[in-house]
Amino acid sequence: MIRLAVRCRPEDSEPVLSSLLELAPNGVEEERGPGFVEYAIYGAPGEIPDLGDVEASSGDARVEVTTTAIPDDWADRWADFHKPIEVAGRLSVRPSWWDAADGLIDVVVDPGRAFGTGAHATTRLCLELLVGLAESGEASGPLADWGTGSGVLAIAASKLGWAPVTACDREEASLEAARENALANGVSLSVECVDVRKGPLPGAPAVTANLTAPLLRECSHRLGEAGEAPATLVCSGMLATEADGVAEAFSAIGLRESGRRSDRDWASLLLRRG
User: What pTM was estimated for this model as a whole?
Assistant: First the structure.
């Protein structure tokens, strides 16, 4: 495996992160220290360029780029760092090696090589919005999860009351992880290989989409062309500075912002039709 890391000054972090997310729409690792922010992505040789150690630019920002070969058992070793999270006092997301929390809806997620343990801010923000919808009595009927990763949003939605739930992704590792995690949680998911950049978007009255801002805007255009916008859309994966642009893109096809949450650099939106 290859680790590609990009280090920059904190004041340059937003454009650098936005550029890197174009290459890694499923999310990045983030580390902050005195006077720097470092973002990293992982992939197999050939998927991640081995650039060595270089200085480069991203827009007007100067960045340091390092690439490091890491052992093939990295996925097993970084599992030691995963811990449970609690969402809105209603939901717990945990890896299988932690015990379930009393009194909370239990979601067990082992990511394997797919993105999504619930710990990333974008995933937590979506989960918070889903819990809010459930508490309002809106957790019913079909739901589609675009870019499901490990399946955490789809599984949580199923446990909160939506059914049937369709989980889609273009990566085979994600599809495998979503199937295995659904089985571990005793929920039924329809897991489909779909590239949201190319294939038809699976339709449902409710949709979750933890993607990037460019992908979300692209989805809005394609929904507008198809004339089939969902009644409710929970989306994240965008920087807080990008949220207005994403909301505007969906507003053009009749999906209005009815809720927004943020966590440091990240934001999520709750959009409704009409």
Answer: 0.76
